[in-house]
Fold:
Amino acid sequence: MRRHLMKRYLNLRKKQKLANYFEDNKEDIFDYIPPQQTNQIFTPKKVVKRMVDELEKENPNIFDDPTKTYIDLYMKSGLYIAELVKRLYNNESMRKQFPDDAARLKHILENQVYGFAPSAIIYRIATNFIFGPIGDNVSTKNFVQEDTTPYAKVGGKMQALIDSYFDK
Structure:
């Protein structure tokens, strides 16, 4: 029993350490989730970073603009959104436009990033990851549980779905 409690305590400490994506951890909380018997495979953190690096390379200064928006049409872990939030939050131009850290973070999460999660469990995983280190004073309205797969298969339906959820 004591060994079990110690293991749970160590796991909780590890979870708390890795939950804050603003810190540059070598490990990732998703490294500890065993492979699932579904098609839900989490994109590795290094791949997500490379994706966002490429986005910035193709669009220099993209993270300077507080009116630019980003969407993950099929969130699985929240890593992609978290990496975008981190880049926007740490951007020097954004810091100048929103000097208050809390106000900058609130602006980013409520006006710049959006996401769709295909199931209730994936929605909870992603939003817990994205909002975990932040607290309750930020709205989660830009993140919804909706499987976008059927909408991606029919031309024009994806935009209609996005418009139905987000008024921008």
